[in-house]
Amino acid sequence: MNQLITTSDGSHTIFVPELNEHYHSIHGAVQESKFIFINNGFDFCKADPLNIYEVGFGTGLNALLTAIKSSAGAREVNYTSIEKYPLDENIISSLNHHHFTGKAGKEIFNSIHSSPWNISVNICKNFNLKKIKGDFTVEPPSGRYDLIYFDAFGPEKQPEMWTREMFSEIAAATNKNGVLVTYSAKGEVKRNLKTCGFEVTLLPGPPGKRQIIRAVKN
Ligand SMILES: C[S@@+](CC[C@H](N)C(=O)[O-])C[C@H]1O[C@@H](n2cnc3c(N)ncnc32)[C@H](O)[C@@H]1O
After folding, report:
1. CB neighbour list of residue 210: distance below 8 Å, 6 or more residues apart
2. Is 204 within a domain?
3. φ, ψ for residue 180 (rounded to 5)?
4. From CA 117, how far away is CA 127, in angstroms rounded?
5. What pLDDT does residue 109 have?
6. Mean pLDDT per segment of 10 residues, for the chain of length 218 residues?
7. Ligand 1 nearest atom to the CA of residue 63, by list position
8. Would 10 be classed as within a structural domain?
9. How many domains does the chain have?
10. 142 lies in which domain range?
């Protein structure tokens, strides 16, 4: 059964005993998401409007941080996220992620989680969300995207999510100069991305992680 855990920055993550895996870094969930997906993804990618695709909606933390950022900016953001195992409402209502996102955080957090699956809805200024209830390995992205948040469980735990075939599906849905960010800097992930037409850069990671990947579609 999923367990709520408090990470080093005080923000929550979830531990999945069956996989022996956390949803985020135990060194700081909010800190990690901000560093990888916002600072090195959202801020780096200059597309306007910005179409984002996320693998693994999970707790909605990346969606929340992106919505807050979008509402404070000028770009229209369309955020599509796929999730095979939506979390129970009781665990979602226990999450403290909105404590880290200022005054507007709670309302946006609630809107993100109460929004229906499989249709696009406006959550707040400049942020539209489409949560897809589905399996990424059988339902890869169908639209066109500028920024990919690749946030599956680790390649050791779910190798089927990180294959060359899956990155080739991602590549086909990514615009030229589109950006992919992920927390795994494993050699095989790097090679698969390169084979699928991405130029891969290794960046220093957040606390507890030596390196992360940012890849740009050729
Ligand atoms: C590392 S967590 C994602 C964390 C999330 N981005 C967040 O902000 O909380 C990985 C997520 O991928 C989901 N997942 C696992 N297998 C999947 C699949 N085949 N298709 C779609 N989602 C999957 C898990 O249920 C989990 O929510």
Report:
1. 185, 204
2. yes
3. -120, 135
4. 16
5. 98
6. 96 97 98 98 98 98 98 97 97 97 95 98 98 97 97 97 98 98 98 98 96 97
7. 8
8. no
9. 1
10. 27-217
Would the CA dihedral through 144, 128, 118, 58 be positive or negative? positive
- Give the model's pLDDT for residue 59: 98
Q: What is residue 76's predicted lDDT score, i.e. its pLDDT? A: 98
Q: And the tokens for 18?
A: 């069956």
Query: How far is the C-alpha of 141 from the C-alpha of 156, rounded, in Å?
Result: 23
Separation of CA 55 and ligand 1 centre (Å)? 6
Report the pocket of ligand 1 as residue ranges, CB < 6 Å: 23, 56, 58-59, 61-62, 82-85, 135-137, 151-153, 158
CATH number of residue 47's parent domain: 3.40.50.150
Q: How far is the CA of 72 from the centre of ligand 1 (A)?
A: 27
Q: How far is the CA of 42 from the centre of ligand 1 (A)?
A: 19
Residue nearest atom 16 of ligand 1, based on CA coordinates: 84
